[in-house]
Amino acid sequence: MLSLNTMTAFYLTYRPQKISDLDLKTVRELLEEILGSKNIPHAFLFVGPKGTGKTSSARIVAKSLNCVGKKKNKGEPCNKCEMCKSISQARAIDLIEIDAASNRGIDDIRSLREKIKLTPGQAKKKIYIIDEVHMLTNEAFNALLKTLEEPPDHAVFVLCTTEPHKLPETIVSRCWQVDFSKATVEEVVRSLKKVVKGEKIKITDKDLKLIASQVDGSFRDGVKILEQLSSGGKKISSKKVKQWSEQGIGELNIDEWLVMVYKGEKEKVLKDLNKAVNKGMDVSKFIIKILEKLRQVLLKKWSVEIEGEDIVELKDVNKIRNLARLFDKAGQEVRYSMIEILPLELAVMEWAGGEVDSDEDFEEETGKETVDLKTDKSKIKYSKNQGKLNIKQVEDRWTEVLAAMKPHNHSLEALLKATKPTGFDGKFLMLEVFYKFHKERLETDRYRQIVEEVASQVLSAPVSIRYCLGERIQPVKKPAVDSSNVNIPTKVDNDIINTAEEVFGVKVE
Fold it and tell me: Which of 103, 151, 365, 480 could form a disulfide with 108 if both were Cys (CB 3.0 to 4.6 A apart)?
């Protein structure tokens, strides 16, 4: 392993320098196969989350294609010849790295197209690494496409991205794609052990696993954390690792909190949750901790031997599994929520109300009145004007629909407060929803059925519901002097805030 400088950050000092150094097994094996063959693609597309080694792998490709002493069978660079050394030390003039976030315009790509015609100054191949390539403009993509279609023999492109869905299909189709998945705990530990050995750090394997389990599959983040923990000395105690692990969680005891959730003690659960948030708790990190604990409990219930203490109060496997699914969904929704804590609070409220995704629980939750609606349509009486209902009439009576919804399902009423009727063709009522996770929740069969039946009753006409995702106006903070141009938050945003305060007793500033 090459050490660039004793003062260099760990993740730079110990970044992979050869194919065999790569910690993602699938990537390692694929690059060995490609670079060891006679037919080398003129363009690669490296796709994957941050910190998984895309840029490091791109530089290894550059070394492999220009190394004069590499092994013939696997394309492994020697790291001893002048070309390998110059790339490792970031002084190779024929390795051009472009950050698309800063050079995203058509003029930048046109400049690249002009320079690419020039033959390499020292190397056999001129390598262009374009990081975050999805940031290019449409015009820049079109210009790049022309280069990818007819590249000079001496040029190879390595495009790197964390968001491949933003790339035009014409670009993707002209590249050899290599997928970089999030690293497993074992793969991150493998990476960390190289640093531990090189820096002579003393730390237990158990603590390395704890670090690896909390960096979301990112090698870079794992190494950064290890460096931070070792800044006070080469011996890292388990106490120090545990303290780091619990940062952002505060004094909230996850085991005790989960037991209260499991038992449906929603008032105490929400009170403790909001107290922790007010003290700076990281909601996303907390949900990850919850899921890790529930996974641990489930595996032990399934007789899988793993480390960690059990929560004996959590007994029913099916309930634990449903609880894990509920929190997993909340974790996915947090990133889209205007109020970060809201999806987690909704999950708690749903669980306390028995709202889990199964037909049996649906029957119990909605109660006899809703079951009657579902099984006996004759209870719904339509007026003679059925089918002639218009959107104005729906809007005028929408508050009545919401009020009628509350006895059936309080959480559903809260979600509907953040929607807006936008059209009615006599059969389908279009409701505009402003948050992706709200739309997904409302489109579940059990929620759609309640809304359609209650709306049909109130409006005295058969109603089928369709949801569409709209764009909300972002609230703008009031400027210090001139407030004349401030965008006032939409009524929908205010409804969400009011609903959160009403349902959860949370004062949203």
Answer: 103
110: its two tokens: 């046109």
Q: Which residues of the chain have pLDDT under 70?
A: 1-7, 70-73, 248-251, 306-310, 354-378, 380-388, 410, 471-509
> What number of other Cβ atoms are within 10 A of residue 160's Cβ?
23
Output the pLDDT for position 362.
Answer: 35
According to CATH, the topology of domain 378-471 is GMP Synthetase; Chain A, domain 3 (3.30.300)
Question: In this predicted structure, what is the pLDDT of residue 308?
Answer: 62
Please state the pTM of the whole predicted model. Answer: 0.59
- What is the CA angle 199-243-245, rounded to 5? 80
Torsion angles phi and psi, residue 47, rounded to 5:
-120, 130
Place of tokens 């490792």: 88
Q: Looking at domain 10-179, which CATH architecture does it have?
A: 3-Layer(aba) Sandwich (3.40)
CATH class for the domain made up of 254-352: mainly alpha
**What is the residue extent of each domain of the chain?**
10-179, 185-245, 254-352, 378-471
Count how many residues are written for the chain: 509
Phi, psi angle pair for 339, to nearest 5°: -110, 105
How much is the pLDDT for 117? 86
What secondary structure does DSSP assign to 250-290, as a single string?
A: TT--HHHHHHHHHTT-HHHHHHHHHHHHHTT--HHHHHHHH
Rg, Å, the chain Cα set? 29
Alpha helices in 178-265 (DSSP H): 185-199, 205-212, 219-229, 238-245, 254-262
Q: What's the pLDDT at 109?
A: 85
What Å distances lie between residue 372 and 120, 368, 381, 404, CA to CA? Answer: 78, 6, 14, 15
- In this structure, what are the phi and psi dihedrals at residue 75, rounded to the nearest 5 degrees? 70, 20
User: What pLDDT shows up at residue 212?
Assistant: 92
CB 236 within 8 A of CB 230: yes
User: Looking at domain 185-245, which CATH architecture does it have?
Assistant: Orthogonal Bundle (1.10)
Classify burial at 5, counting beta carbons within 10 Å of its beta carbon; exposed 0-12, middle 13-18, buried 19 or more. Answer: exposed
> Do the beta carbons of residue 312 and residue 259 sit within 8 Å?
no
DSSP 327-344: HHHHHHHHTT-SSTTHHH
- How many other CB atoms sit within 10 Å of the CB of residue 7? 6
- Given a contact cutoff of 8 angstroms between Cβ atoms, the answer to whether 420 and 439 are in contact is no
Residue type, 368: K
